[in-house]
Amino acid sequence: MTEQTFRVGPIRPPSEAGSLLIQVTRGCTWNKCRFCGLYKDNTFRAYSVESIKNDIDVIADYVERIKPYIDNQGRWDRLGLKGEINKLSPTERESFYVVLNWLMHGGENVFLQDGNSLALKTDRVVEVLQYLRKRLPWIKRITSYARAETLSRISAEDYKRLKEAGLDRIHSGFESGSDEVLELINKGVTSEQEIIAGKNIKESGIEFSVYFMPGVGGKDLSYKNAIETARVVKEIDPDYVRIRTAVIKTDTELWEYVESGIFKLCSENEKLNEIRILIEKTKGCSGILTSDHVVNLLQGLNGRLKEDNERMLNAIDEYFNLPESEQKIFQLARRKLMVTFVKDLKMLSEFQREKLEEITRRITDEDKWNRMLNELLMQYI
User: What value does the CA radius of gyration of the chain take, rounded to a whole number of Å?
Assistant: First the structure.
């Protein structure tokens, strides 16, 4: 008898933590970005519509097997579930747990993986979306990642077809709106293509979520990274601007640039100032800025670019108004996950503060300090 399993890829946005993950492609069509080593050893693969439908059928079957063990008050029959799980093979259990976890998180949202799912022809994506909506008709949101360059080649009409078929949101890692930075990191896209993609998506009614990577241009391009990204954001007015502070990993080409001296790591203050510039220059935009990843220095920085602009700038300035010594204490404590907000500095024990202060006194060279913090951040991505 064939095992009832389905594919699940390696990544998803933090905002899709409770979503059902369905892998329609594997890897990335480009796979040449100098800051990314995620898919280095994987060749891009687009799965057939039939195999994706088969995965959806398996998921729907597990949903039906799980449903009897939850009552209309949302209470779970854990003993009954255990009996159901005991009938499965080890690999089937992995798939079962994925569906169970999804249902326990509400069972409403789906995320299509991997890094560039919309590289599939629109007709194929539409067929997958329609089948997904047919088999799991209660779904409220379907989301996908896609490269900006790929998105720029999809017409406004095709986006409308995707919207009608059930695609609700697209995530895209722009990283920067600066053509110099995009070339430096070998992103394989231009700012003009980003704008074309964004405008077509917005016209269709699909929500658009873009990612900005402060620090990815290094010290030399720090200001351009911020100001040019603000320009692109103003042109598009995406629904979400998500902050993903640059972390340069040692298995990437960009780290080789660091080692050779071509690329100089930004300080925490330079990266935060990029975010400040972005917020300041996009005041009229209607979208939401969200700092929803642990690699961001100020993780709780969230709000509407229009209504909450001043509040977010004030939150950044609360940090910048700290004495330099306290800024370094916060940087280190934050990277060690000892604090989340500036106000948390008051919660540090005397022992913790002494240890942090000892490190700040010992490492006075800026480059060494930046490298140490970058190394601490590597464990989170």
Answer: 22
Percent over 70 (pLDDT), the chain: 100
CA distance 27 to 45: 7
Looking at the structure, do residues 264 and 377 belong to the same domain, yes or no? no
Model pLDDT, residue 1: 58
Q: Which residues contact 6 (CB under 8 A, 6 or more apart)?
A: 22, 23, 54, 55, 56, 58, 59, 95, 98
In the chain, which residue ranges form alpha helices assigned H by DSSP?
Answer: 49-66, 78-85, 90-104, 122-135, 148-152, 156-165, 179-184, 191-204, 222-236, 253-260, 268-281, 309-320, 324-335, 350-362, 366-378
Contact 140, 180 (CB under 8 A): no
Q: What one-letter code names the amino acid at 190?
A: T
Q: Note whether residue 240 is domain-resident.
A: yes
Quote the domain boundaries for residue 345. Answer: 322-381
What's the CATH code of the domain at 60?
3.80.30.20
Q: Which of 297, 319, 341 represents a domain boundary (last residue)?
A: 319
Residue 192 pLDDT exceeds 90: yes
Q: Which of 319, 351, 372 is the last residue of a domain?
A: 319
- Rounded mean pLDDT, 165-194: 98
The answer to whether 206 touches 162, Cβ cutoff 8 Å, is yes
